[in-house]
Amino acid sequence: MTTHASTAAPHRQPVEGRGKAAGRVPGQTHDEASAAIAADETPLLTAHAVSKFYGPRIGCRDVSFELWPGEVLAVVGESGSGKTTLLNCISTRLMPTTGSVTYRLADGGSRELYRMSEAERRMLMRTEWGFVHQNPADGLRMTVSAGGNVGERLMATGARHYGNIRAAATDWLERVEIAEDRIDDQPRAFSGGMRQRLQIARNLVTGPRLIFMDEPTGGLDVSVQARLLDLLRGLVTDLGLAAIVVTHDLAVARLLSHRMMVMKDGHVIETGLTDRVLDDPREAYTQLLVSSILQA
Ligand SMILES: Nc1ncnc2c1ncn2[C@@H]1O[C@H](COP(=O)(O)OP(=O)(O)OP(=O)(O)O)[C@@H](O)[C@H]1O
User: Fold this and answer.
1) For 150-203, how does the pLDDT look when each residue is reduced to its tens digit (9 = 90+)?
2) Cα(80) to centroid(ligand 1), Å
């Protein structure tokens, strides 16, 4: 466990008072301005009373929250608290037992995810969402070149021009600090940190609006983790991405997220702005979690 839980997050954007009209942009019609305001006042994703049971065992229970555009939400808790189950239920990888998840599409329409067809959900995954797995091998094709891994995602969204695809892949490899001369290498020849950076490039090349991350720095050396976190934080901020990040590492939550939810035994027991929860935890369990990190 790392000990830099108290590192400040410099990119924090104001999350309270979100949804307030920002006024009309010059050149914007009144209808466009109204649409932009409406979009700003609607959450990107709303989970309502999501529960998942594995037989008699609780995966997660009665979880409700809203995620706003550009907001990074961390889901924290100890092993077995239900973080991954919740993430999978929200990202349509696992059908919840009860509850609903509503997502606002880029075209402005809201859809209940589990009422969409499988094909529509797959399309959403390819175009508007990304998923960064803890183990890069789960999110990469290990026997396809680095450039191919990135280009393939673009092709899945309709790109066909080889030169443009190669140029975009080169650009994204550079953005995730992978040297251009590694573009034809396969990820199995990469270090763990490089693989994870490649997985990030593969996910971001299509310009998603929402990215799910499951322990994105888990299993990496502390120094590699710090560099990856820096990179992730920069990309998420630059691209204005919304993200849901599952982590047991409060330092990761501190560095990346605006808001956090603390889970225990499948339930959300505390939620709030990240700095507030970490600096002034209200629940005894959160206090224990925070103090155990600070003493580590
Ligand atoms: N496929 C499954 N079948 C049965 N029980 C499961 C399954 N997946 C998870 N569980 C149970 O659901 C509960 C929540 O597990 P989950 O993996 O979501 O927790 P977690 O907080 O992500 O843990 P970790 O940090 O160790 O990954 C645990 O009791 C776990 O044993």
Assistant:
1) 999 999 888 888 889 999 999 999 999 999 999 999 999 999 999 999 999 999
2) 5
The packing angle between helices 192-204 and 222-239, to 10°, is 10
Could you give the ipTM of this predicted complex?
Answer: 0.97
* pTM attached to this predicted model: 0.86
Find the residues whose C-beta lies inside 6 A of ligand 1: 54, 57, 59, 77, 79-85, 248
Ligand 1 midpoint to CA 83 (Å): 8
**Residue 256 to residues 41, 177, 205, Cα–Cα distance (Å):** 23, 19, 20
Q: How many CB atoms lie within 10 A of CB 205?
A: 25
Q: Which strands, in side-by-side order, build the sheet including 110-112?
A: 57-67, 45-54, 98-104, 110-112
Atom of ligand 1 nearest to the CA of 248: 25
Q: Is 210 helix (H, G, I), strand (E, B) or coil?
A: strand
Say how many Å lie between the CA of residue 234 and the centre of ligand 1. 31
CB contact at 8 A, 262 and 277: yes
The domains located in the chain, with CATH, are 61-128+208-296 (3.40.50.300), 142-206 (no CATH)
